Amino acid sequence: MAPRSWLRLPVLALATLSYVLASAASHSFENTAIVRTVDLGGSLVSVTTTYAIRALEDGAQKYVVSFGEKEKASVSWFEAKLKGQGDPLPIKSRLLDPHE
Question: Is the pTM of this model over 0.70?
Answer without folding.
Answer: no
